[in-house]
Recover the amino acids of this structure.
């Protein structure tokens, strides 16, 4: 892979902006793209994001340095938390190995 001088590498993004939120790509196109950027002007959004794929769906990943900013973004637009450790390796880098949802536990009835 070739990097350009001064460009943030994926590893640098993960280190500097570890709090990441994934939105379905369909929710990030057209006018929604500008709405997301305008909302993030005062937040710690990384200037470079990325996309991942899971179950034939493209997800756009927004990366934040501050966990509170990521929480505000999720509260406003939804999405799912994205852990960079769940991303594929090598040629499968864009694969999201999303962990299965944990089953809800019933409260103890004592």
């Amino acid at each position: 892979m070739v990097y350009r001088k001064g460009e943030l590498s994926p590893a640098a993004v993960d280190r500097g902006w570890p709090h990441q939120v994934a939105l379905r790509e369909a929710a990030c196109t057209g006018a929604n793209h500008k709405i997301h950027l305008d909302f993030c002007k005062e937040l710690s959004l990384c200037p470079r994001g990325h996309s991942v794929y899971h179950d034939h769906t493209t997800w756009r990943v927004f990366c934040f340095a501050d966990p509170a900013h990521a929480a505000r973004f999720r509260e406003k637009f939804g999405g799912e938390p994205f852990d960079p450790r769940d991303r594929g390796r090598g040629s499968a880098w864009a694969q999201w190995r999303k962990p299965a949802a944990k089953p809800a536990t019933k409260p103890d009835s004592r």
Summary: The mean pLDDT is 85.
